[in-house]
Amino acid sequence: MRATQASGNLHVHAVAGTYVVSLGFHVPKVACNGLLGFSVHRTDHTKDEAAWLKGTKVFEETDPGFPPGSQYSTQDHPIQSFQWADYSAKPGHHYTYRVCARKGTPRALTTADEVTVDIRTEGVEDGNHDIYFNRGISASQEYARRFGTQRPDKKQDDVIGDPIYAWLSRGLYEALVAFIEDCVPGRDALRIAAYEFAFAPLLKVIKGAVDRGVDVKISYDGRAKKNGNPGKDNREAVQAVGLSAVCTERTRPKSVISHNKFIVKLTDSVAVAVWTGGTNFSRSGIFGHSNVAHVIEEAAVAAKYLDYWTALNDDPDDATLTAVVETLTPLPPALPVKGTTPIFSPRRTEAALKGYADLAMRARDGLMMTFAFGMNDVFKEVYRTSPAPFRLALFEQATRPMKDGPEKEAERARIQALRNMPENVFAIGSLIAITALDGWVKEQLSRLSTNVQYVHNKFMLIDPLGSDPIVVTGSANFSKASTLDNDENMVVVRGNERVADIYLGEFIRLWSHHAFRESRGFSSADRKVRLLKLDDWWADAFGSTERASRRRFFANVASD
Q1: What percent of the chain has pLDDT over 90?
Q2: Residues 217/282, Cβ–Cβ less than 8 Å
């Protein structure tokens, strides 16, 4: 949901997803003299609660001296940014946000203008797209506040109800369990395609459904453990739980991977829904790094996935599967029709990858992408030439996995050249590894993941705040291998503002988290980073700057 309100010189644009409400502020430059920031008060009408929201920075002269990691009321310590987000929102709630543009002095703040915005967050299961983002940020101040230095027990078998796992899951695992356990024996059936399939608690949930009489069949990657292939681990886990009788293995061709992570649900032999996205059915996938699961309750889309699963379950060779895939999901026209369009792999050519790049080039206001394993050259060209004035990208690492040497340095240089463009603002997975310095607490990873520590998402947002947004999401890493070689699935969702609003909020949550931490690593180790400013902090939010583009984008204003 989106809402805009203005009063005096203050303009506020709010966008509500499920767990995130993004707020964009705009004040004309001529009215910014003396502006000290924005205070935000939230009324939760659903819970009948009200409070000033909190931030992490303070004025030096009114610093109450709280311990490292503390938060401070924006009533006294306002936000010095034209874009901010409430990450404590809850799905399906009615909120009123009161935003105050603050002037005066730190000890005597005054309100120059005030705006109230009413908005409702999306219910997770509203409509026919249910979207679940896990927390994805175990290395965070909030984790440290809640759990200190305690890490999740990697050997733990029963994760339901454990507060650490519940916080990391953020409803994703619970929804996955419910998707399986809600099946009615004799009526419902499940068809599962998996890459990583060795998480015992989940396998036991599936075995429970089989034992209850639910028709379950599973196709998983059974290739030898080479280059990280999970075949051996999958096989041993399946055997240990007693699921072998309902499983088949994907083994051909040996040089690629069956990278899908989807479950088709059938009711009375008709496909009715598909659970898809980039979340592996593994402990690390669900809890260890950032991921999304996307449930599509559209019979026509689910039927495509069922036909795809049926082909995969025969363990076909590459030529056979490619022919099936291209018949099932021919590439859409340059601009797909409104609705949900699935695109499967492997394919004969890189046309699908080029098609995603062509879609990205259609962005006129904003483009956001995630890159778990580096940026393909076609997207380097997009970020070099896109007409969109505001372009964000979130990386696991600056490059794809590469050995140190000239080739890696050259790739770093290409990415840095893109970062030097004012339209492009990139963030790379990072954490705060210092202790009690500048008011932060030391952060640590959960150790649930090995190859990927931070960013595993694979999605693209094209003009997400427009009236015709496009979201591309699924299992593929926007790479040559994911198009030509691997078993993969993606969906293009066009014209669905609800889906775009949810993805935008979660992208900004993750991007802002890592962008701050990366920039913190570049800063000197002094207290100034945590302190609010008394100068013209707002000045670089006007003109031809990245912050100006960000202000205009999130406040939804066409110009200054």
Answers
A1: 90
A2: no
